[in-house]
Amino acid sequence: MQTSFSDAEYDSKKKVTRRDRVLSELERLVPWEALEKLIEPHYFSGKRGRPPIGLKRMLRMYVVQNCFNLSDEGIEDAVYDSQAIRRFVGVDIGREGAPDKTTVQHFRVLLEEQGLTRGIFDTINVNLSKNGLILKKGTVVDATIIAAPSSTKNEEGERDSEMHQTKKGNQYHFGMKAHIGVDAETGTVHSLVTTAANVSDVTQVHGLLHGEQSDVVGDAGYRGVEKREENLGKAVTWHVAMRPGKRRMLMMDTAWGQMLEKVEKIKASIRAKVEHPFHIIKNRFGLRKVRYRGLAKNTAHLYTLFGLANLFINKKRLDAINGIVAS
């Protein structure tokens, strides 16, 4: 493709922005061919009607949309506003327009309805597993609350019926929960379950185990997990944190108390792995509130986000495997 004046001007700029860095990382980390192969059988073939927009372009717009927390209209505007995003997506606005918000929405709905966001998550994890980045010996479980709009000032005049209120500490939260299981060695998310915010964390552990782990680590909210019917007979060792009140009562002037405190610190250092994926989707990807109504659409969205988060979690390891030296 002939280099346009805007491309040449963009290439001459000296500052590499955060957006440039993220797009460069996505270019090399995302298994593009595998994802296109996953989606292609479900994508519009264009035998009738106007020719479809290329799958490669739509997939790239979808990935950028999720990484920068953009709406369907927002990603359309971003293609026009940002030379970096235009280049990444492959749009030359001197010759053609960007896919509009309706086209973006149709692509997103296709992925949701065909269960392809779960496929994106699984495909990324298969790629990581082939590179030895999901070891499966231990699992850390945790959950985070994702807020939903509590206002009833909408067309339906009511809150989302699939979201619920819960109390954490002295504060009430309305929304949903994302329960995840991560690899204890790398912090890679291998399992996801979503519920309303008022569902207890300990009730969802069985859905977060892949069956090959020998140890499971969780915070004090998972006390009694080994006694639950769905977990009886599982060949795992449970490592659940001591309740804060009980931990404060440890007699630190005794060898026994000091040993128990050391064990709790070791558990905490392992549990810290589970906080990184939450940090990425909430702070780096900007998911502070659910984007859609209902658990199904938001679950589909979360599968994509956690799949992409896994790539960033393993960025240094993947670069080392591919012989890329960090700048």
SSE order:
HHHHHHHHEEEEEEHHHHH
- Tell me the fraction of residues in β-strands, as a range: 5-15%
By DSSP (H or I, 4+ residues per run), the number of helices equals 13
Low-confidence stretches: none
Whole-number mean pLDDT? 89
Question: What is the radius of gyration computed over CA atoms, rounded to a whole number of angstroms?
Answer: 22 Å
- Biggest sheet architecture: 6 strands, mixed
* Helix and strand composition category: alpha/beta
Number of E strands: 6
**What coarse outline follows from CA principal-axis ratios?**
globular
**End-to-end span in angstroms?**
28 Å
Total of domains: 2
What is the percent of helical residues? 40-55%
Helix-strand layout with pairing:
Blueprint: H1 5-11, H2 18-29, H3 32-39, H4 55-67, H5 72-81, H6 83-89, H7 101-113, H8 116-130, E1 138-147, E2 164-168, E3 171-183, E4 189-196, E5 215-218, E6 237-240, H9 244-248, H10 255-271, H11 275-284, H12 295-313, H13 315-321
Parallel strand pairs: 1-5, 5-6
Antiparallel strand pairs: 1-3, 2-3, 3-4
Helix pairs in contact: 3-8, 5-6, 5-7, 8-12, 11-12
Folded structure, characterized:
By secondary structure, the chain is an alpha/beta fold. The protein has two domains: 5-114, no CATH class; 135-292. It has helices at 5-11, 18-29, 32-39, 55-67, 72-81, 83-89, 101-113, 116-130, 244-248, 255-271, 275-284, 295-313, 315-321, and strands at 138-147, 164-168, 171-183, 189-196, 215-218, 237-240. Strands 1, 2, 3, 4, 5 and 6 form a six-stranded mixed β-sheet that branches. A hairpin with a 2-residue loop joins strand 2 (164-168) and strand 3. Helix 5 (72-81) packs across helix 6. The longest helix has 19 residues, at 295-313. The model has no long low-confidence stretch (mean pLDDT 89).
